[in-house]
Amino acid sequence: MMQGEALRFAQIFLIVCPSFILFGYNQSGVGGLTDFPSWVRQFPEIDTVNTTGAQKSHNATVQGAVVASYTLGALFGSLICTWIGDILGRRRTIFAGACIALIGQALECSAYALAQFTVGRVILGWGVGMLSATVPVWQSECSPADKRGRNVVLTGMFIAFGFALTQWINFGFYHMQERSASWRGSLAIPALFSLTIMGSIFLLPESPRWLVLKNRSDTAQQTLACLRQKDAVSPEIMHELRGIEVSLEESSSGNMGLRDIFTMGEEKLFYRFVLCILLQFFQQMTGGTLISVYIPIIFEDNLHLGSSLAKVLAACALTWKFICCFVGFYVVDRLGRRAAFMISGGGMSMCMLALTVSNSFSNNHTASIISALFIFIYNFFLPVGFLGANFVYPAEVAPVRLRVAMHSFSIANQWLW
Known about the structure:
mainly alpha, 18 helices, MFS_trans_sf, carbohydrate:proton symporter activity
């Protein structure tokens, strides 16, 4: 049986990696397919390529609603974890999320009508929402305190990889865009990640904190021993187990429930809750997701590049963003969470100011090149704090008994915006 570092790497690459590649891949995957001729023929109701005037405006509205239906599903999926997360446990919730995502993917890539595609999009979002709300909590609860930040910040790295992977795969299918296999194949590929999660999750340990919550301290002790690669009766394991038990006893002594999130008291639960909510709100307001989704269009309109070259440059920009996530990986535990957020926010503000100025010269080619350059610089600063550390912080500031609920609300708030 795997233990210690081997077990930690298995958690990362069999569960965390595919879960958050799904997050990034599906968030931007459809946007790059909507101009494929085979797509337009299949779904004429959302054709914005061959229409003009009022019809184009109407189709664009419908297209936006169809694409956004994924977000609505994810919002529901993350919120439902507030209630089922502590009932099912972390592993069963993750398995359920992967199953639901797989059903959505099957409906999407086999769709011959817009209604079926939209239903598939909602169901896919539901599953991904459950994964995004549960996986960081499970990983955080299984990680030692000194490695928790690094381990959980990997979520942002895999989201960035998902965005980049989408662009490269869509570019690969771009040269066969006349065939429906181009967009169906692109939408079917992430099913591999769902299957990986489903096949792996029960080979890995349950959260020790959830086991203690369910009065299974003996199992939690064995789990901690495997995770830390130590003897089950060693002082380190007994001390960590006792710490979890004391934390749960303190939170349960006051009969803590969901309604207590909205009260202050000695633990300042509402203050912690507001921090979690505002952090995810600010993460979305940075515009990082918007830029990642629409970056090919930005390059086409600003630099007047051809569609093919714009897609390559967009894929390169998002690959650069993924590489820059390694900076956040090393910064988050060395400088702390607040410093990472401040560096990231300050750098992005500088880039946004530069983009505002350069884009004011609409017909200046040099200004357009500067705009493209600052998109790359922006993609350096974003992962330092606001693409990974934002998943760590809510899980750390929430009390054990309300950890899933607070984290689920914070992730739902992220999907909302």
